[in-house]
Structures are given as C-alpha cells and as structure tokens.
C-alpha cells in the first residue's frame, strides 16, 4: 500500500499514549506533576515510538473528580503550569513528531464554574438556559447513575433558585444544555482556541451523554398526561385547554426543541447533528484533526456515532466490547470470546477507525458481559471485593492480574498491537506498572509514573505526603519497576513494547487491511490475517499454558511465498495448496509476513549465509 495514505489519515496507524500531567513528572518539586516535568520526559515517549499523546484534563479545577470538574475551559490549572509552559511543551512534542490531543469534557462543568454560579443566581440569568432545570425531577433510572457508590439520583435541588438541576455524573458536575445554540457556539470556541495552540484533536468524554433526551422524556410524559386528561375531559363534555408549550422548563424554547428532538435528515437524535457540526468545524480549522470518542454501546448503536456510512461524526471509537471479551478469553484460556467479538464487529466508514486498548484511566469496565461472564473475570483477576468497583469493573492493572507472568503480559500487548485498530496505551503500561489498592476508587491505577528506583521513583523531590495519589508499593513499586532499569535491559517489557511499536508501524496492513479470523482447530489460539494491496500479515496468539501445533490454510497463498517471523527470527514454508504448519509455545505470539523469498525480511539464517559467502569469497 502507499505509505502516503498513512500520513493523510494518520490516526489509522497511530500509537496513542494517555497520561495525566498531574501524575507523570514533577518539574518544580511541589509534589504535583506539571508541564515542565512532562516536557523533560518527551524523549521517553519518542524512544518508545508514541505518535500521538492524549492528555487527560489539565484545566483549572477544584479537583473533586480528578480534573473532570472544570471551572475554566480556556486555561491551564495553575498547579500544572501556565499557558506559556503548555506552548513550550507543544513545541517540543511537535519537534519529536508527536501529535497531541486532549480530553474534551463538555457534558458538564464544575458547580464552581462562573457559568453555573451565574446560572443559579437567578432564573432570569443569561446563563440559566446553559444548564438543565426542572421544577420536579423525573423518576431516576438506577442504571443511569454512573457512580452508584456516590450518587443515587440524577437530579439535585438548588435551594437558591428552588429548582432541580440535572447531573449525569456527580452532583457537583451540572450537565450543560448542549442543545442550546449558545452552548454549542461556546464549545466551538473552546475547540478553536486549543487547536490554535497546536492540538490535533480531542478525546470526547462520554459521547452518548452529550445531548440526552431528558427534555424529550419529560415532554412525552407530559403530553401523555395531557392527552389522558383531554380524553377524560371530552368524555365529561368539558373543554380542555392546551398545555403550555414550554412545560416546566425555563428559557425561551420548548423542551423538545432544547433536548433530544429528532434531526430533519434521518430521525437521529440531536447528539449526531452536534457531532457532525463539531467535526465540520474542526475540519475547516485543520483538515487532519480527529475526534476519539468514548462510546460504550453495543456495536449496532455505536456505529451511528461514526456517522453510519458517511463517517462525518467521531473519527475513532474505543472498542469496549472487544476489550471485555479479551479479558473473558484470558480468564477461560480460550480465544473464542474475542474471536466472536471480532467477527461481530462492523467495519467503520473508510476514513474512521476503531481504537483498541487493554485498559484506560477509568475502571476496567465489564458492563457488556453477562453477569455469569463478569463473575468469571472477577474470579480470575479480581476475586477480592476491594479489587472491584461499581459492581461492574476492576480497579487493577494488567501485570498484577496476570500474576506478573511475562509470557502472558507480552502476549496480551502483542495482541493489542496486532488487532485491527489503533492501539491506545495508558501511561506506565510500557513498563508493567501495578495498581495501589490503598488509593480510593479509580485512583488505584492513577499512581505516579515510575522513572527510577530511587526516591519517589524519580517522579518528584517532594515528600510523598504532598502527592495527589500514593506511589505503588511492593512487587510493582519503583524499586523493581521503573523506566531507567528497563531502558538498560534488552529483555525488559519496555524493550518488548518498543519492538511491538516498531513492528506495528512497519506493518500498515494490520491497521489498514481487511482482516479475517482464521480457523485453527485450536480453541486457545486466535489467528487473524490482514490483507491490503496484495500484502498479507498474520497474527497468532495462544491463550493457554500449553504448546500447540496446527496447520493453517491460507487462501490465495502458495509455495511461491514464505512466512517470515517479525518478532523473532524464523521462516515458515507454505505448501503448494496454501497450508502452513504452525507451532506456538505456552502464551506464545507470532507475527508473520507473507512475501516472495527474495523480498522477505532478513532473519538470522540469512545473516549466517551472508557471512559464510563472505568467508568463501575471502
């Protein structure tokens, strides 16, 4: 395939790395990570092969939700630095060829944001309609409460104005009324501001909640009630007055106009029109900008957020279902759950893509598994209640879940980089960091980055009591797990990850090609191939602790090609009928490129032959 395509649509084979500035590196010794510290460690990301850095929220915040409760969308939290230091960081990242995206959190603000303070000051405030108000809250749907350990309702009473405001997340995070044109205009200004400072896109937080159908549900319920009253009135021979158009909502527009009314071109909810508008705005400012969407929905529902066949909404969506099925496969020692998910997963529009991941910064959610399947994963990787969260997920990192077994850990990350999609790493995964279960909730996996085996893991010179989150201790503490030591060890996880990144970038077939799940006859083995423009790469992964051997039928290939190992030395022959005999060790993984013998990548045997010829010629 033409490599020029990989730069035009750079996100399709990018290597994305997510970090929290606050926990990555402290540059001024106050115990809090900052842009000065991050800038000094950009070369670590460059050596690893990262091409896109995703920054968690770095805006001013009271920090009651790890920065997702924002009080100013146009600045940097003073604890993390200044706008000037942000610009310096962006310049260094650009010099190393690393693009930067940031969290776009526009579902809600902090209740300390000036907009909300003004909105709650009076029902006549110009910002009143920037939020969602009601005289009487709707009945709560327990499944709709995102944080059931902290909240039991989606509505909070505001004593000052005598109304309830809506909050999908915490009560101190009132939802913005994104159906209000003024709010949408302000969001466009926020996008434009940060793009002018160099951002290449945004990770959109909780996409399905951007424009919810709160108003539509309330309006529907009111209409049903009014219709029933009118029907009863007509039977009584009494004339009924029509209901007030705005119902109990405040502002100049009716609830149906403000929240969730269908679009004119296909009946999609307003969230899709909003996403199309946002994507169009970004394309006008920077045609290569992208949106990475957090859309945890079943595949048929999720596909709509790409914009269906048009692909004019979210550029990439996380594959939550594939991730969860991967953990079920690991728990069972069988590849079948993941293979089924990949067969079910639809192809996104041509310029869009899936984002694959092992875990992210939130809980490791298992919400798309059945109750029995979720329990299997809990039993295997988080049997203690303290390891679980919200009844639906785990607050653990991968290495401790796999008992530190390097074979399993390396196999999982080989899988990540070979699966069809763009791999997304969470900081510290490259060295095998563990969690600290002493930290509250999801903070267990948001511990400080571990750079050296010395004081505070090289994260900060301050006293640990000054840290936002405590360091990880014990087997996964910085004394045993750190960047410095692994950089010097050719057999370390860091070096393995670096090799995976390098080979992934050299195999655009994995990201761009049409993939096919192959039948191996071995339940423990996931085999898939990626083909594009006559080029083929195979990926093979053994989920069991037993060695396996099998014959693989490769349609379209024959003895005119060979399979060359890309992760280790070795070459496998293909028969005239297109069969290849494959061996995989316990938790083994292999990437194989099909090519003509004269064009195949070199392996150790080729080097030995070359050296022998040189000796003969001498």
TrEMBL record:
Pfam families associated with the record: Alpha-amylase (PF00128), SupH-like_C (PF22157)
InterPro entries linked: GH, GH13_cat_dom, Glyco_hydro_b, O16G_dom_2, SupH-like_C
Protein name according to UniProt: Maltose alpha-D-glucosyltransferase/alpha-amylase
Source species of the chain: Sphaerisporangium krabiense
SUPFAM superfamilies xref list: (Trans)glycosidases, Glycosyl hydrolase domain
PANTHER family from the UniProt entry: ALPHA-AMYLASE FAMILY MEMBER, MALTOSE ALPHA-D-GLUCOSYLTRANSFERASE
Top-level taxon of origin: Bacteria
Key words of the record: Glycosidase, Hydrolase, Isomerase, Transferase
Disordered, as annotated region: 220-268
GO molecular function, one term: alpha-amylase activity
One GO process term, biological-process aspect: carbohydrate metabolic process
EC number: 3.2.1.1, 5.4.99.16
Lineage, broadest ranks: Bacteria, Bacillati, Actinomycetota, Actinomycetes, Streptosporangiales
Domain Glycosyl hydrolase family 13 catalytic residue range list: 18-468
Biased composition (Basic and acidic residues): 220-242, 256-268
């Amino acid at each position: 395939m033409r490599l020029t395509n990989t730069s035009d649509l750079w996100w399709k084979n990018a290597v994305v790395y997510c970090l929290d500035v606050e926990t990555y590196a402290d540059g001024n010794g106050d115990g809090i990570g900052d842009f000065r510290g991050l800038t000094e460690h950009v070369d670590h990301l460059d050596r690893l092969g990262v091409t896109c850095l995703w920054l968690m929220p770095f805006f001013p915040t009271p920090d009651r939700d790890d920065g997702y409760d924002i009080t100013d969308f146009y600045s940097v939290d003073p604890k993390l630095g200044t706008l000037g230091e942000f610009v310096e960081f962006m310049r260094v990242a650009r010099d190393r060829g690393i693009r930067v995206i940031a969290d776009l959190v526009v579902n809600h603000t902090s209740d300390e944001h000036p907009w909300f303070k003004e909105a709650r000051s009076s029902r006549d405030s110009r910002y009143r309609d920037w939020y969602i108000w009601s005289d009487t809250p709707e009945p709560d749907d327990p499944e709709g409460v995102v944080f059931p350990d902290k909240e039991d309702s989606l509505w909070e009473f505001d004593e000052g104005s005598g109304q309830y405001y809506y909050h999908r997340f915490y009560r101190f995070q009132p939802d913005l009324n994104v159906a209000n044109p003024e709010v949408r205009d302000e969001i466009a200004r926020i996008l434009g501001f940060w793009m002018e400072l160099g951002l290449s896109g945004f990770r959109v937080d909780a996409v399905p909640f951007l424009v919810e159908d709160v108003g539509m549900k309330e309006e529907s319920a009111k209409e049903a009630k009014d219709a029933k009253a009118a029907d009863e009135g007509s039977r009584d021979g009494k004339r009924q007055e029509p209901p007030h158009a705005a119902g109990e909502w405040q502002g100049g527009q009716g609830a149906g106009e403000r929240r969730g009314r269908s679009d004119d071109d296909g009946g999609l909810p307003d969230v899709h029109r909003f996403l199309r508008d946002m994507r169009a705005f970004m394309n006008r400012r920077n045609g290569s900008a992208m949106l990475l969407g957090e859309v945890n929905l079943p595949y048929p529902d999720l596909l709509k957020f790409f914009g269906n066949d048009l692909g004019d909404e979210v550029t990439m969506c996380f594959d939550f279902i594939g991730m969860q099925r991967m953990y079920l496969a690991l728990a069972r020692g069988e590849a079948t759950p993941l293979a089924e998910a990949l067969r079910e997963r639809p192809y996104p529009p041509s310029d869009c893509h899936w984002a694959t991941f092992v875990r992210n910064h939130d809980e490791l959610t298992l919400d798309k598994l059945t109750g029995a399947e979720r329990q299997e994963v809990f039993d295997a990787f988080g049997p203690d209640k303290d390891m679980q969260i919200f009844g639906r997920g785990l607050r653990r990192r991968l290495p401790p879940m796999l008992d530190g077994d390097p074979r399993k850990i390396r196999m999982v990350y080989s899988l990540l980089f070979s699966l069809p999609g763009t791999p997304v790493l969470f900081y510290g995964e490259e060295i095998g960091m563990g969690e600290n279960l002493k930290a509250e909730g999801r903070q267990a996996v948001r511990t400080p980055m571990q750079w050296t085996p010395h004081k505070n893991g090289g994260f900060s010179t301050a006293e640990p009591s000054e840290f936002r989150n405590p360091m990880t201790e014990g087997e996964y503490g910085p004394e045993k797990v750190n960047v410095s030591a692994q950089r010097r060890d050719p057999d370390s996880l860091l070096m393995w990850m670096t090799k995976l990144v390098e080979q992934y970038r050299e195999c655009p077939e994995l990201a761009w090609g049409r993939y096919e799940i192959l039948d191996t006859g071995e339940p423990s083995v996931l085999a898939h191939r990626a083909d594009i423009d006559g080029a083929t790469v195979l990926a093979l992964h053994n989920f069991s602790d037993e060695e396996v051997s099998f014959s693989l039928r490769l349609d379209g290939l024959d003895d005119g090609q060979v399979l060359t190992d890309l992760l280790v030395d070795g070459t496998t022959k293909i028969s005239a009928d297109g069969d290849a005999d494959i061996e995989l060790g316990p938790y083994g993984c292999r990437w194989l490129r099909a090519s003509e013998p004269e064009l195949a990548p070199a392996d150790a045997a080729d080097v030995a032959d070359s050296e022998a010829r040189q000796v003969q010629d001498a």
